[in-house]
Specification:
Order of helices and strands: EHEEHHEHEHH
Shape: globular
Radius of gyration: 19 Å
Helix content: 25-40%
Strand order of the largest sheet: 4-1-3-2-5
Strand content: 5-15%
Largest sheet: 5 strands, antiparallel
Distance between the termini: 44 Å
Length: 227
């Protein structure tokens, strides 16, 4: 079943790719810009375990932080003091962070390349990681900078002839302490104890009546109800 909703304290692979195989990461400067925005928008609510940016796609392996962190971040970002019980669900907050990341990158990409229009193919892909073996396999694959075949057809030009991946291989070197990694918001999946994330797996999706928008509509109904 396709992963729809995201749950705190669990691990997910987040990904997206460009339309028509346009080269999103045709230069180191584009990769650096994306990484900067990734850290700005995702590190407050996740720990990044691994990532890869190459050619026309990105993949990010993240462990979502606790619900209270999401709530505090939402209030801080929105400059509000909404009670935690009334704050949008984790999926909504994370989706907004991803929207900010992708929109800011696309605007920068279009400005640099003097183009306009859509760049990424969808909102973003998400996949629940269900075991330590699956997690470790993804860390190894992402750090190798392997590009996944999403669909048929290849959009070829001079820019696409040279593709180098930017990955999190640095995170798994021997010269960086665990304390430094944690302080930066990154987490070495092989050294951290993440077994609890796989003991009780969350559902892929929630019933439609359990989402944020239903609760907001019900809240408005209660506020407008006659005394």
């Amino acid at each position: 079943m396709k992963t729809i909703h995201l749950f705190e304290d669990h691990i997910y692979l987040i990904s997206n790719y460009s339309v028509a195989r346009n080269p999103m990461f045709s230069s180191l400067s584009m990769q650096d810009y994306f990484k900067m925005k990734m850290e700005k928008y995702l590190l407050p609510i996740t720990e990044i375990l691994a990532y890869s940016m190459i050619g026309n796609e990105f993949q990010i392996l993240v462990k979502l932080k606790m619900r209270k962190t999401f709530c505090a971040h939402y209030n801080s970002y929105q400059n509000t003091t909404i009670p935690f019980a009334e704050i949008p669900e984790t999926t909504y907050i994370f989706s907004q962070a991803m929207a900010n990341l992708q929109i800011s990158f696309v605007k920068h990409f279009n400005f640099v390349h003097k183009r306009s229009g859509t760049l990424v193919a969808s909102r973003f892909g998400r996949k629940l990681i269900e075991s330590e073996n699956e997690m470790n396999g993804l860390v190894e694959k992402l750090n190798k900078g392997e590009e996944r075949p999403h669909y048929s057809g290849i959009w070829i030009n001079e820019i696409m002839k040279e593709r180098r991946a930017m990955t999190s291989v640095w995170l798994y070197g021997e010269n960086l302490s665990r304390e430094t990694k944690c302080a930066e918001g990154y987490l070495n999946a092989r050294k951290a104890d993440l077994g609890a994330s796989f003991k009780i797996l969350p559902p892929y999706r929630l019933p439609s009546t359990n989402n944020f928008f239903f609760h907001q509509i019900f809240k408005i109904f209660r506020q407008n109800a006659a005394p």
